[in-house]
Design goal:
Two copies of one chain form a homodimer. Chain A is mainly beta. The first copy, chain A, is built from two helices and seven strands; from the N terminus they run αββαβββββ. Chains A, B: It is an enzyme of class 3 (hydrolase).
């Protein structure tokens, strides 16, 4: 049982693991920083604290972005998409968003370049 | 067997259904438009044609964004994230990105408002 508002919980369409995708975007610049996962409780904590809080599938535990690295996310705005399976977080990212040290998780591997 | 470059295929970390998440973002404004799914073949077709092409889990078939609505996506840039399970597409979206007619799939349901 999570503390999530039941009116919000009713609108979520979770995957078989009980998770929704969460995309974090930098306020102002619009950069897409990272994608991670949330269950109801992670979403509840994010809404209640305005600190980006996710659920780790590999470690099976909650993690607050930046708790160990200091690279915290202050959450300005949270939106749910039309089919209820993806959350968009508009955040102020402190330092690097990616655990590799890159500014975003999408910096390192370009599969298709912009045309000249 | 998809036509995807084996060097790219080797870097993908697919979910149990063989899919990676794909986030589409408007070029220039940075707006996050939608989230959908791709398998290797959908990614191959997107890279080869520069038209946003996804895999529908419910219909179990490929769909080219805008093929019926006319709301096509011209793909400028494609990036893979650090852990290989999420694609970022930088696109020019023609018309509404959301099937509801909204400009983006994240327009309708605000879970947490920006502070004053």
């Amino acid at each position: 049982m999570s503390g999530l508002d039941p009116a919000i919980a009713a609108r979520l369409k979770r995957n078989p693991d009980g998770l929704v995708a969460a995309v974090a975007q930098q306020r102002g610049t619009g950069e897409v920083l990272m994608m991670a996962w949330m269950d109801d409780e992670a979403l509840h904590r994010t809404l209640a604290t305005r600190r980006g809080t996710y659920y780790s599938r590999s470690r099976q535990q909650y993690w607050i972005k930046g708790e160990t690295s200091g690279h915290t996310q202050y959450v300005h705005e949270v939106r749910l998409d039309c089919d209820g399976d993806t959350i968009l977080l508009v955040v102020d990212q402190e330092g690097a968003a990616c655990h590799t040290g890159d500014h975003t998780c999408f910096d390192a591997d370009v599969l298709l370049e912009a045309e000249g």
